[in-house]
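Issue 218. Parser rejects a valid record. Input:
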Amino acid sequence: MKNVLFWAATAILLVFVTTGKAADTPRRMETVRVAMPGKLVDYSALYVGTHQGFYQKEGLDLQFVVMRTGIHYPALLAGEVDYTTLFSSTIRAALAGMPVRVLLALNNQQPFFLLSQPQFKDVRQLRGKRIAVSAFGSSTDTATRKALRHFGLDPNRDAVIMALGDTGVRLAALQSGSVEAAMLSAPHSFIAQRQGFNNLMWTGDLGGEGQPTNGLSTTVKKMKQQPDQVYRMLRATVRSIIYVQQNREKVLPVILREFKGWDKESIVQAFEFIVKGMSRDGTFTVSSLQEMMSDERARLGIKSEIPVQEVADSDFLARVLRELKEEK
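Output the parser choked on:
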């Protein structure tokens, strides 16, 4: 674990800091490193929270670190990063025995679209074809397998699922013809459609209860040794989630600045899509969590029941919501 950051550096695509407002009350700032699989519109609440000064007011100086999904947990356990935005992957890691927990959900709606080369018009036509996901066991992998099964294909036999990395890399693979299809999130999904690739499906159309794919997770060690930081991190994030949903017109220019140089129409479209699917206040249902746990247990070959508390901690978020309610 000692050298995790060195090895992680080979896969980190970007470390960036979003400039925000100064805190009203000067206080010692703690640097908090948040790992994410790519710079995505999905994380609008985090960018806006920094811009609006919500994190600074809590004494937190956020640094966003983009790295491949598979490196998040070694980096977390080594203390090289403090939080990850991964949600379903954290469930899988916790079920496999890692001391990590989900704390909060950023979204309660599937953000993925299955894009293909122009000649494909139906998911069933992907039999024997190459499909790009971020990493095996990731939310994109889970969504892809679920989609294939829905259309009568066996993901283990009838398709070649390839773990290629973040959504930008997957789009590049689609553009180069290295794969026939890719599971993409916004804005890359909208960019791909504008470039002539076919949108075969939105995974949210598969039905069932909305399942979070993004959120905040950390280690059990962090929760025990720095509970106040965890609480402040969640409080700032919940404030930001609520602010984004209540102030779309004010927030959009912030997002456009964050994604300066990107296709503007795709960013606007992605932002509207993401906001519609945001968690109201960071919460997620126990039933959706149990459904995700059941899917992952099957993938891992775990037959015994595992308590929800082994993969998620709701105490910090519950305290935040109680106190915010009292402020009204």
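Fixed in the parser; the record now loads. The first helix runs from residue 4 to 9.
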